[in-house]
Design a protein that fits this description.
With 327 residues, this protein is an all-alpha fold. Helix content is 81%, strand content 0%. Helix 2 (28-38) packs parallel to helix 4 (62-75).
Length: 327
Amino acid sequence: MKKKIFFCLPLLLLVTAVMYAQTTSLPGLLKDGLTSFERGNYREALLQFRDLILDSTLERYHGDAYYWIGRSHLALKDVEKAGQNFDFFLVQYPKHRLSSDASYQKGRILYLQKEYEKAIRQLYSYIEDYPSHEYRPNAYFWIAESFYSLGHLNKAEALYDLIINEFPRSFKVESAGYRKSLIDLKMREQELLRLLKISHEEYLKALEEFQQREKEYEQAIKSYQRRIAGSDDEGEIKLIDEMNSEITDCKQRVSSLQEELEAEKDKVSQLREELKNASKPSAATPRTIPDMGETDKTDQLLNLKNSAINLKMFYIEWLQKNREDDS
């Protein structure tokens, strides 16, 4: 904050000094209006500038009056009237010495009116027409703000970088740096949303597939157990014991897979919590975005589950085939 004040104070003193230097040869109404404006008495300044316009003998200063009426309305936050006066000024006095300032103020007013695309065009036109004007870094800032409001974060970030790197003494540098941090946060939030969607969809797909295959597996086991329940063959009984052991092992693996799927569900919940926290700016170092290895882990779990089920189905089909051959 001190840095900002350090840069703004000399500029303010310079503008004030120039203003007073210029007023020495100005008519009384314009002097009084500028003095009131500089003191913050904007309503009084409006009356004085309007009185000047009503004086036909001071026609050569009417352009100045319209410009400062626009500035006074802007200072009073009456954006609509300020825009109307600057529009009139730019049309009627295109060669006026204050037309460059008015062109910049018009772009700023369009931004305040949330006419972001129009503001971008107006401010780029101002930069092109007056490449060396003092408000150039400010114009880039309001263009960046317009892009930011439209959701074009990459374009906005590029302009914030331009302000920081090319206009390091501008009082907009601090604001540009803050906006950059917000853009980083928004991009992180978008990445978390993407990961959340992927994790949630994969979890639902894995769960649905698992439940379907588990149902088929259990039905096959029940059918198999019914067919071998009355067998007296010693070799077949031994095979049954081995198969029962395999069944127990597969059930344990199924249980393990269920736990892994629940863990995936917990990760989805964690991502939701990450997303909720992402909306709160913090000075701390941003937390690392979850690694995309979660998708590979889900695939590994599904492959392990499929292997277990396929192995069991192989034993069931083999036994059924041998019983048919024996019969």
